[in-house]
What does this fold into?
Amino acid sequence: MKLDSMYQEIILDHYRNPHGKGLRDGDAEVHHVNPTCGDEITLRVRLDGAVVADVSYESQGCSISQASASVLNDLVVGKTVGEGQVIQEAFLELMQSKGQGEGDEEVLEDAVAFAGVSKYPARVKCALLSWMAWKDATAKALAEQPAIND
Amino acid sequence: MTQSRSSEGHTGSALTGLLDTDAIRKDFPILQRVLHDGKPLIYLDNAATSQKPRQVLEALNAYYERYNANVHRGVHVLAEEATALYEGARDKVAAFVNAPSRDEVIFTKNASESLNLVANMLGWADEPYRVDADAEIVITEMEHHSNIVPWQLLSQRTGAKLKWFGLTDEGRLDLSNIDELITEKTKIVSFTLVSNLMGTINPVETIVRKAQSVGALVLIDASQAAPHMVLDVQALEADFVAFTGHKMLAPTGIGVLWGRQELLEDLPPFLGGGEMIETVTMGSSTYAPAPHKFEAGTPPIAQAVGLGAAIDYLSNIGMEKIAAHEHAITEYAVERLLEVPELRIIGPRTAVDRGAAISFVLGDIHPHDVGQVLDEQGIAVRVGHHCARPVCLRYGIPATTRASFYLYSTPAEVDALIAGLHHVRNFFG
Ligand SMILES: [Zn+2]
It folds into this structure.
C-alpha cells in the first residue's frame, strides 16, 4: 500500500515514543507553527561551544511532525553545529525531492524513512517543522554566544 | 477489519426522506472518479466546496462558446445577450433568497468579499451607521475567519470595540449574556447561520430581535446555509446576508451580498472603478444606484451565469427536499460516528438544529493522520482548524477531522467513512 511509504515503521515508532521530548534549559527558544494543519513546536537549543548540547521541545501535531522532531533530536544532539547544519540541509533536500530522493543513510540515518513523505506536498511542511525551528533557534543561540563568551 | 461487522444492524438504506441519489449522482461527472487502485471517490468535503453538476458546467461552456462579451456596455448582440444572462442570474438569486427587489443582490467574488464589503461600508458610512470609536461590533466565537478578521480590522482602524458570543460545551452559542453583549452602543451584529466547523444552526430570531431592539444592523453569514436549506432573507429579518456560490454547485469566483435597499442607497461604495459610476469628472464622481454601486470593474460574468444554473438545479430538486435528505444523512452519520471508540464529536451530538458538517477528533490520532489514511481509501474529508481556529481553542483541540455531506451523499458513504475510521484506529493502534 502506498500509505506505507509515508508511514514507515520507523516513523510510527518515533511518533509513539518520541526521543528527547520536553523542554529543558536552552540558550534560545523558538515557536514555529504549521498553519495548514496546526502542528506546533516550541524548541530550545543549548550549545556547548560549537557543540549542540541539547535540543528540547514541546510539540503537538501529526505523526509526521512528531516523529520528525524525535529524529532531529537523535541526529543533531552531540554533533557540532556545522555537522548539524549539513544534516539539516540534506534533510531539506530530501523533503523537497518530490518522491525522487532516497537520502544518504550515512548522513541522515533514521531520517531517510521520511523519503516517502516528500511525495505528499501537504505533509512536507509537517516533516520540516522541527528542523526549521532548530535552524532558527540555533542561529539565535549562535548570535547570543559572543556576548556570553565575552 | 471491523467493516462488515459494524455495518450490520444499521438501517442506512432504510432512511426516510432521501433523494434519488442514483439519479443525482449521474449529473456529477467527478463523482464517477476512481482513486488509488480502484477506490471510488467518496467526497465528504462539501463544506469546503461542492462538486458541480453537468448542467452548471454546460452553462459555463455555453456562455463562453456563444455569448461571451463584457456586460452593461456596447450595443452589439453579444454584449446584450451577456448582460441579459448576467442580470438574469441576479433575478435567479433574488428569487432564491426571496429578496424583495433584485437590486438588493450584489455580486461579489465570494462570501469573504461580501463580509469585507459590509465592514468597509460601515467604516466609511455617515451616521447613524458609522462604526467609530464609540461603537461596538458583536460577532461569535464560532465564526469562520472571514467573519472575524474584517471586524478586527475595522475595530483596529476605528477604535470600535469587538465583542463576541461564547460557545457552550454542546457547540451552541451561549446566549446567557446577550444583554451585556448587544447594547445601545452596538452598531452591527454579524454571525453565521450555520457553523462551518460544527454544523450548529444558530437561533437567528433571538439575536435579530435583540439587535433590532437596540437599533443595530444584522449581517448573517449564510455560506453554510444557502446550499443546504431554504434561505429567505425576509423571514430572517437581517439587514445583510452573505454567501458564496462554489459551496452550492456553482463555480468559484462568485459570491453574493444581499442588503436591504434603503441601506444600500445610504451606504458608501467601497471599491471604485468602472460599472459603479454615474458620471466621472477629474474632480469627483457620482455613483450608479445599487447594486452596481458596489460592483466596480468587470464582474465575474460566466461565474454568475454558473450560479444561476446552480440555483436552477437546486430549485428543480427543491431546497426543502435537499434539507430533508441531508438531515436524514446527518442523523445517520452522527449515530454511526458515536459508535466509533474514542471518537468525540465537536459540536452538537444530535441532528437537531444542525447542518451536515460534522467535526470530530479520534482519540489522540491527529486529524492530519486521520485524513491521510482516509484519503488512501478514496475518502475526502477536511482536516485542520477549518478557518475557525477560535472554536478549536475553545474546545482545547489543535484541529478536527470534518466530514460534510450534500444532496448527492449516501448512507453507503457514511458506512464507508465509519469503516475507514476503524481502519485508521487499527493503523495507528
Ligand atoms: Zn502535520
About this structure: The mean pLDDT of chain A is 91.
